[in-house]
Amino acid sequence: xxxxxxxxxxxxxxxxxxxxxxxxxxxxxxxxxxxxxxxxxxxxxxxxxxxxxxxxxxxxxxxxxxxxxxxxxxxxxxxxxxxxxxxxxxxxxxxxxxxxxxxxxxxxxxxxxxxxxxxxxxxxxxxxxxxxxxxxxxxxxxxxxxxxxxxxxxxxxxxxxxxxxxxxxxxxxxxxxxxxxxxxxxxxxxxxxxxxxxxxxxxxxxxxxxxxxxxxxxxx
Length: 220
Known about the structure:
CATH class: Mainly Beta
CATH topology: Pnp Oxidase, Chain A
GO molecular function, one term: pyridoxamine phosphate oxidase activity
Strand content: 25-35%
Cofactor: FMN
InterPro entries: Pyridox_Oxase, Pyridox_Oxase_N, Pyridoxamine_oxidase_dimer_C, Split_barrel_FMN-bd
Shape: elongated
CATH superfamily: Electron Transport, Fmn-binding Protein, Chain A
Structural class: alpha+beta
Domain Pyridoxine 5'-phosphate oxidase dimerisation C-terminal: 170-220
Number of helices: 5
Helix content: 25-40%
Domain Pyridoxamine 5'-phosphate oxidase N-terminal: 27-152
CATH architecture: Roll
Distance between the termini: 15 Å
Number of strands: 12
């Protein structure tokens, strides 16, 4: 990799602007599908880990959180309610970069969830009502029937028929970052790694205030 693609020396005091730049680069270059995809790991019963891919729909670097949207009654939603902490990984293979995040999670404020839900395609909004995410399903036909039942109940067969309200069990989740690792691929597998941590103090139902970051390089 070129020198300007590696981690700077000395390390920046705040890693979030660099994360924001990498995230923006991945979306602008668009050299791989779904550049905003991230793996979210949660903890379930008996401390069993669980991971899945979601889409990061918002990064707020000045405050230090990312946002994804989901069914709160899904497996990840239930696990996050029970253990409100998560880890996330972005892997931009084509750009030779990776970012790891850890921190507490909170639900997004209702206006944030409403705004994003309203921007989704009509079919996706109907699907949020129709799918009991993570629950057993008898067949593909059964899911299609659930979709039609929702359309009939809401009196909406197409987008021009009216607005689809946001389900109360669907919305955003904010992962507030108290640990971040930036990784850049190096020659001969001598990769560049650095990790930063900070203390978060709860401000209100949706937000934290962050202390100063402490960063260190790591062996690859």
